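Input chain follows. Return structure tokens only.
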Amino acid sequence: MAAKMLPVLKLATKVSIAGGALYVAYDNGLLGGSEQGSEVLEKAKAAIPPAVDEWVKYFGFQLPAIPKVGFSPVEAWNSGVQSSISVLSSGPTAVGGYTNQGLQYMKDLIK
């Protein structure tokens, strides 16, 4: 009986952890817009160092210094989507230009 309950218990634990992580992410605004994500990032930057210092004092070991990252999610939000749309919007013009070049090349070969 216990052998059949173990997989169910494992699945329930995994689903609970995943659901809890999703709830915390949603509750803190990580699934919102870029400004909201930036605010959450600033809150995390302010809250994590004191917590790490407390743990370092408790366990008695030293961690390496945190590197400074000059990254703003507001500036980079959906930059991949924007570049993809830019390529797609310029695609018909580029294809037309390549077609004209190919036709001109074929005309030059026939002459």
